[in-house]
Design a protein that fits this description.
Helix content is 45%, strand content 21%. The protein has helices at residues 3-9, 23-35, 44-49, 76-92; strands at residues 12-16, 53-59, 62-69. Strands 1-2-3 form a three-stranded antiparallel β-sheet, covered by helices on one side.
């Protein structure tokens, strides 16, 4: 099946801010994301509601894909930098 054929088979793709989706749709988003095992359920709904935008891909009435344009907390990047620095120190056995 080609990409074009696959896209014709899919019913719809929606893209809007989180407040544009119903609670039922947001719950389905959370359920699908958690089912893939990459993200913890803890705090996910709140993070989804804080995103800039959400995308949901449906095959008929079944949600088959999700995406989010994130709006990270201000300290998110700083925390990542601190963790990377600590890992680097352990890896190279340095003190600082």
């Amino acid at each position: 099946m080609t990409y074009a054929q696959a896209m014709q088979h899919l019913s719809s793709l929606t893209a809007r801010p989180p407040h544009g989706y119903s609670d039922k749709e947001l719950d389905a988003f959370v359920e699908l994301v958690v089912s893939e095992g990459e993200v913890s359920h803890y705090g996910l709904l709140e993070r989804i509601k804080g995103a800039r935008g959400l995308v949901m891909l449906y095959d008929g009435k079944k949600l088959v894909g999700t995406a989010a344009i994130k709006n990270p907390e201000p300290d998110y990047r700083t925390a990542g930098a601190v963790i990377r620095k600590r890992i680097s120190r352990v890896r190279y056995n340095t003190q600082q």
